[in-house]
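Exercise: predict the fold of this chain.
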Amino acid sequence: MNKKRGIYEHGFDVHYLNKYSSLLALGNGYLGIRGTHEEDYTGQTRGMYVAGVYNKATANEPSELVNLPDITGIVIEIDGQPFSLLDGEVLSYERSLQFETGELRREVVWKSKTGARYELLLQRFVAKHDLHVIASKLTLISLDQPAAVKIVTGINAQQTNFGKQHLIEESVRVFNEEIIQGVYKTTESGVTVAVGSSFHIPEHSKKTFSAKNRQLLAAISQEVAKDEPFVFEKLSTVYTSHECDRPETVSLEAVQAIALQQYEDLLKRSAAAWKEFWEQKRIIITSTDEFDQTAMDFALYHMEIMTPAHDDRFSIGAKGLTGEGYKGHVFWDTEIFLAPFHLYTEPETAKKLLLYRYKHLREAQEKAVQNGYQGALFPWESAFTGKEETPEYAAINIRTGTRQKVASALAEHHIVADIAFAVVQYYENTIDEEFMKNEGLALLKETARFWISRTVDEGERLSIHDVIGPDEYTEHINNNAYTNYMAYYNVEQALYFMEQYGDVDSSIIEQGRDFLKRLYLQKPNDEMIIPQDDTFLTKPAIDLTPYKQKQGSQAILLDYSRQEVNEMQILKQADLVMLLYLFPDSFSNEVVMKNLFYYEDHTIHDSSLSKAIHAIVAARCDDDEAAYRFFQEACLIDLGPNPHSSDEGLHAASLGAIWLAAMFGFANLKIGLDRLALDPKLPENWTELKFPLTYQGRTLEFKLTKQVCEITKLSGPELEININGDIFKLCDRLEVPMTN
């Protein structure tokens, strides 16, 4: 019998505790719960997070996504012996995250120190059909003898963000000896969070409640016969003041309602919602390596559970809702790496992510003024308020005792153009005139106004000085090619849409035309290499082979200071290659190929954002071997063997880039206002690639092989599509032979 699709852990290893807690995380976009074990282990980081619930520990610190009270922990005691995989003997063990149902399962046969064997099945899910519901179930069987079972569980508000306490305990209650509830408020942002739980316990069990040291607990005791299952269910709800005025009342009523249901009933409803998701959005890869499909399913699952599609006041953090890395902040990752998945499968979600930016346009304008610019300067890191949340300083250098200043908020301004790029991309795929006339045009105008004010007039040309491009090992340089080209596109599109909608704001139009006429854009040199910035090609190069072998670890910073790295041809991640990816028609194939290989030779790939972008451009250059290798290495960023690669949460942008690689690399799609084109570049060991696509009100389904391209239009009007350079009309179904 084939195993169900999912992520499997076949043995318990304390070194992988937090990695698997991230990999096996559950969620639904509203809340996320780390896939920790029910029992405690030293170093295990529990976590429950709700989108938009941020708080400052002190006035001078950035906001961070609050680690909320834990409801997953269970102390299990059998015949007086605490259940722990570090004691006794583990006779069998398997833990899995089931993609099809969104359920986390752990099956263990454990022998205690006394020699008695016990079988445990632990199940858990976060409901997809109801954003506020979490359910868990424990089934325990004593295999050798009668046993005394005791479990203790409840609501544990001892949780912190790496030691920082963000919640005040407002009330803890037991209602009718059936339901427990804890109500908490964040110390600075003032968000109320209500958590409630009800229990289904075996008949004749003994149940007691207690509250102490920020814990509200229920203890259940039961004598069980040999081979008689002890079954315990815990059904919980979470509500906050972000979505209702009295979350404590709403939460209690919701718990009372679900208390009438069983775990399996709720799971069935949640699984039905997951089934609908997979039917509508799954990419199916037929490959000689099953890992390719697993990695793609993993990426789609986690993009779905990290996206707050329910509320346009929130966006996607760099770790989603799987951990506290980057304090839960929102970066350019959302617009460039994550929004496209939603745009081309469910455009309304992509629109909400843009509305998050629009709702904080005022804060971006304030930041521009504070930095001496006009227009809107969006923060490099943002949270609920839309203000800049980038920490001012990095960690302390333990040898010098000094802190290094973080330059991203001061100079990594390409995020402004990244947001504008996403606005245009959204419009071109939806023709949403109402959005573009209002929110879209406002974003384009204010971002364009920023770039116009950001330039330095050098007489014949305008330059953009003192920036950081996508490559964060190259700081404070002038005329970063990615930044300049993106700024040009930003202003160009602002002027275009102003003309389309009759906007005659002369303060932008006149200066914008001058900007487009004089902005310096790096061009290929005699060797056809596009300079990454004004000075990069003049810097010395070193052999990066040993550092490439340790990519992702920033090992080069053990041998060189950041200043020394800044003065050499060393890239942390794709920079110029990002430009080639986003603007596939701006340079000749020969220029693209030469730049891909030149810059890859100087790139360590210490950033999780890098590999998949190289995969896309390599596929377009017909370097099948390199494209597929980069793709698989990108998939291994979270799923690889490194035991600590994902301790503080998954790499959200990397997951988005896995989807991008399949769509814009191997399917080689090009999507614009007036065209939908593809020129497939399937890897050698892929025999078929199937995927859905939403394009300008149409729902399409693609099936690509080495021999044929099949496209089915499931809804919407007919359209013309470019396949390998030839134009075809798609009415209902199209089948085009592939030629070499």
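Check your answer against the key: The radius of gyration is 27 Å.
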